[in-house]
TrEMBL record:
It comes from the Bacteria. Residues 168-346 form the VWFA domain. Residues 33-81 are annotated as: Disordered. This is VWFA domain-containing protein. Residues 34-44 have a biased composition (Basic and acidic residues). It holds the Pfam family vWF_A.
Length: 527
């Protein structure tokens, strides 16, 4: 995202996400422990401590779960703040599962803890209108004073098939030679065909392919009521065949040009990139590629949704493209996952509940000794930019949940207020700023983690799992750049038992337990 200033004083956290579009009837951690005394603890980059947040803005609205604007909260000391842009990416977890299923441990550089946590939808109370509700809770992670604090943000669900605006979707499809591998182009074609049959008559689709060059094989086409539009889309999809090298720059540039040319008034316009992101021709850097289509992104508001495929996958490039393109990424490895993405997640990107959403947690210096945010290095925002609405945040759609996990060490005998979490966003229609907040007290973290509710335990297992996979690789990504393992972290063997005991027994939870089991077998169970 543009204008985002990376801040290294945090171990940034886990946000979770389940986005939905209704056309169907679905890095390395730069952080360190942060002292909470506000006395001379410098940021990890050596800069002076950052200032406390500005007073609540008068236009800051509150969601259903909001508390008063914070005027009664104790002032936060400079190093008591943690600020990040909201994110609902899940590609890191999906790719890790694919890698483990093939008998390999994932590269630690591809493991982003927030995307592991974001892969599991939480049952937070939802607001009535656009924007967010805020829930804050936690539990003790051990006997050394550390707890896991959960900040839960959620938006109202979708309003039904007829309520969302029409969709104008430009699919940019990688047909390079590497996409010939089973589970790449064949999976893309099957998924697009299913989605085409389930979109509404007032939705429109364009198709752009790229290998060594790019081509618009289908301009923006209204699906319509007669069947002729859908037939044209199906014909274009069936003709997709793998060819030569991967000129991702040409694909993105042509895709955005096609989206602008076919932009429909009153519709939500999106570019959807489907690729293994193994660029090897033309411009291959995310910043260089996106510089070429910056006008389309900023002037026309056309954002990017990246869908990754393949056992060999350019994770870093795809993640950077979506981040800089104000969008999201996910990863699919089988038809079931593809159906969920194209029939559930993608349609949610047609509608927005919030623009440029950012969160800030202010820890009370009287009760908090240290804290660590888990993940989110690529989403960090300078504390003073929380209320600067020119600084990009996340674009969030209907039914999203975002979970941020913090490791927090309270002072001995701490009582009363522990932290206040705020979320700020722009109304998707008026662009007016809004805020909501929630508070947590020391007493709210007195329960033990493994006896907490199922959602918190699932988030904890996902975060501990990501931390363990990072640590297995050593180097810069090992346990967050050399920091100690997360407080209360079990061995992988113990984590596998915790995963097996998670409530619900749904497919997502079973998938997590299976992934941990596979990691245990590959590592011998060490943590």
């Amino acid at each position: 995202m543009r204008n985002r200033k990376t801040r290294h004083g945090l171990l940034a956290v886990a946000l979770a996400g389940g986005l939905l579009l209704t056309g169907c009837n679905s890095g390395g951690s730069a952080g360190i422990d942060r002292a909470a005394d506000g006395k001379g603890r410098q940021r990890a980059d050596g800069a002076a401590p950052l200032p406390a947040p500005a007073p609540d803005s008068p236009e800051g609205g509150k969601g259903d779960a909001a508390t008063p604007g914070g005027r009664d909260d104790p002032p936060a000391a400079p190093d008591h703040l943690s600020t990040f842009a909201l994110d609902v990416d899940t590609a890191s977890y999906g790719y890790a599962r694919r890698t483990l299923a093939e008998g390999r441990l994932p590269d630690p550089a591809t493991v982003r803890p927030e995307e592991f946590v974001n892969s599991f939808r939480q049952d937070y109370p939802r607001p009535d209108g656009d924007g967010f509700s805020v829930s804050v809770d936690g539990a003790r992670a051990g006997d050394d004073g550390w707890s896991l604090l959960r900040v839960g943000l959620t938006t109202r669900g979708d309003d039904g098939e007829s309520a969302r605006p029409p969709a104008a979707l430009t699919f940019v499809i990688d047909v390079s030679g590497s996409m010939a591998e089973p589970g790449r182009l064949d999976l893309v074609k099957e998924s697009l065909g299913i989605m085409t049959d389930r979109l509404r008559p007032d939705d429109s689709v364009a198709l752009v392919t790229f290998s060594d060059t790019a081509e618009t094989v289908l301009p923006m086409t209204r699906l319509g009521d007669t069947g002729a539009g859908r037939s044209r889309v199906h014909t274009a999809i069936s003709g997709l065949e793998p060819t030569q090298s991967t000129n991702l720059e040409a694909g993105i540039t042509t895709g955005y040009a096609t989206a602008v040319a076919g932009k429909e008034r009153g519709a939500t316009n999106r570019v959807v990139l489907l690729s293994d992101a193994l660029a090897n021709t033309g411009e291959t850097s995310a910043d260089g590629i996106l510089d070429r289509i910056s006008d389309a992104r900023r002037e026309h508001g056309i954002t990017l949704f990246g869908v990754g495929v393949g056992s060999e996958y350019g994770d870093a490039l795809m993640e950077r493209l979506a981040d800089k393109g104000d969008g999201h990424t996910t990863y699919v490895s089988d038809p079931e996952e593809a159906r969920e993405v194209f029939c559930e997640q993608l349609p949610a990107h047609v509608e927005l509940r919030a623009r440029d959403a950012k969160a800030q947690v202010a820890f009370d210096p009287e009760t908090v000794e240290r804290f660590r945010l888990i993940g989110y290095e690529n989403r960090a925002v300078a504390d003073e930019d929380f209320r600067d609405d020119s600084v990009d945040g996340g674009e969030i759609g209907p039914g999203h949940t975002v979970t941020a996990l913090y490791a927090v060490r309270a002072k001995p005998g701490a009582e009363g207020h522990l932290a206040t979490a705020r979320v700020r966003w722009l109304d998707p229609e008026s662009r007016a700023p809004r805020e909501a907040s929630g508070r947590v007290r020391a007493a709210d973290l007195e329960g033990t983690l493994w006896r907490a509710d199922g959602g918190l335990r699932t988030a904890a297992v996902a975060a501990y799992f990501a931390d363990a996979l990072r640590a297995r690789g050593g180097g810069a990504h090992s346990s967050a750049g050399g920091a100690a393992p997360l407080p209360g972290a079990p061995s992988l063997a113990e984590l596998a038992r915790r995963a097996d005991a998670l409530p619900g027994g749904g497919e997502q939870v079973r998938g997590l337990a299976d992934a941990v089991d596979r990691a245990v077998r590959l590592t011998g169970g060490a943590g």
